[in-house]
Amino acid sequence: MKRILISRTDSIGDVMLTLPMCVWLKDHFIDAELIYLGKGYTRPVVDCFSVIDRFVDWAEIQELPTAEKMSFFHELKADAIIHVFPNKDIASLAKKVKIPLRIGTSHRSFHLLTCNQRVGFSRKNSDLHEAQLNFELLRPLGLKQIPTLEEITESLHAFRVPKVEIPESLNALLNANEKTVILHPKSQGSALEWPVASYVSLAQKLTHKGYTVFFTGTEKEGSLFRHELPENPSIVDLTGKMDLSQLIVFISRCKNLVACSTGPLHIAGFGGIRTIGLFSPRKPIHPGRWAALGRNVRILVKDEHCPDCKKKKTCHCIQQISVDTVLEQIA
Questions:
Q1: For position 310, what pLDDT does the model report?
Q2: Distance CA 294, CA 320 (A)
């Protein structure tokens, strides 16, 4: 194996939970070049793991004429491709350029025609964590062991915060108060969310205890809730103010982060700060599948045995997690 192509073209949190698998690959194929095929906006988190030798932006390839796509894939000279996130177009390209080993889940019909190694497992019904499930796809490479979450957490030593400058005004705020909390209320629709009103109430209680509170998110997310933020010098709206690399650095320099199941939650977990995740117990969005990984992670659910969640009914019990319960985890 000289070159292994890992394909996962979805969001930040999903990508981060694929990276421990990449560390495992590098440990077992020391001399192999690992090429990560993903969406360009996720590159900063991939670059935090030095085991990845090259990043390829699928969005750029996707726009090329078919002949140029094939030429690009052919020039990668990959010996294997692992379709962690199934994509019909990528699977077809991999077959057309005759990548020798093409691994994918057996639960996608198009893999019957495009993959020569299909692994049978169910993500939706499994009790394994998402990071563990990714290891199932390594079986055709002879790596049949599924590591424990403790073993996966050990692999997070490979995570490196980028050497990127953040605005001097933020440096000043971080240096002025060691008691800092990031609140990240939104998830771009990827998870059930704790109410913004609860985040605001939490922020007010934290400032009374001497904390500086930072609200983060995209500009679009900020437009949904910044009008609800109280005027308080200790509550700072940073939505839309940083790119992803800067956000990673900023998270690493704070003491606490509170969020639902979303990318910044995983960044905080990997970075080792106190990470408080707010979850519903309903499968397949439960913390058993999507909890942040790291040694300083706390997970909160209102009721692990919520009857509506057990029946997979629409349930918003995450909204019933009390502000004081979250406050206790911080203070």
A1: 75
A2: 25
